[in-house]
């Protein structure tokens, strides 16, 4: 069944031409079409030339957004002994050992990110049924299984995000808020593009970048000229 578009979205779509936009132009259009009655996020939807059903074509990593996410991240930490106090001192919002695992099993999910120390992972693994569907299971690739709790907590609170390609090879990432300046959105989008480039799966053959679209949470999609984005230099953007 085809979803009926709202009048607001139909009117906004009329502002967007079916063509790739130069990055700055695309982000200006994203901001212009963010007209919902709440603070909208800026989202990127990137189609890559990969088939994630093969292990050497999977993409799962983290990106540190230089201008932050615009969100307050609630971090929970599962650790043992002195590491629990380390998590508390580093600014974790929730921390504990076996008792926190039990609370999560009973439905406590008032956090956005869960970090665990490696020695606790065998017990955390039991939470897979609870955490998995919500994308909250800690992973070494995502930087959320670590002994350096202070660094991990500070990085995630400052704007580090974990992301992965879905089963169709598309990456969906929030890279800021629609009320960020165009300059800050561009810096974050470039950091995301650089990160995906650096983490190209070994099995990815042929054309890696297929398309990239940006949008606000409730706005229309705007295609970005991927070659123009790749040609930008982060050092130039940061110096501007």
How would you concisely characterize the structure shown here?
α3 (82-89) links the parallel β3 and β4 (94-96).
Structure in words:
- With 240 residues, the protein is an alpha/beta fold.
- The chain has 10 helices and 9 strands.
- The strands form 3 sheets. A 4-stranded antiparallel beta sheet has the order 7-1-8-9, covered by helices on one side. A 3-stranded parallel beta sheet has the order 4-3-5, sandwiched between helices. The protein has a two-stranded antiparallel sheet with strand order 2-6.
- A hairpin with a 5-residue loop joins strand 8 (209-216) and strand 9 (222-223).
- Helix 2 (23-32) packs across helix 8.
- Keywords: Repressor, Ribonucleoprotein, Ribosomal protein, RNA-binding, rRNA-binding, Translation regulation, tRNA-binding.
- InterPro entries: Ribosom_uL1_bac-type, Ribosomal_uL1, Ribosomal_uL1-like, Ribosomal_uL1/biogenesis, Ribosomal_uL1_3-a/b-sand, Ribosomal_uL1_CS.
- Protein L1 is also a translational repressor protein, it controls the translation of the L11 operon by binding to its mRNA. Binds directly to 23S rRNA. The L1 stalk is quite mobile in the ribosome, and is involved in E site tRNA release.
- One of its GO terms (cellular component) is ribosome.
- Pfam families: Ribosomal_L1.
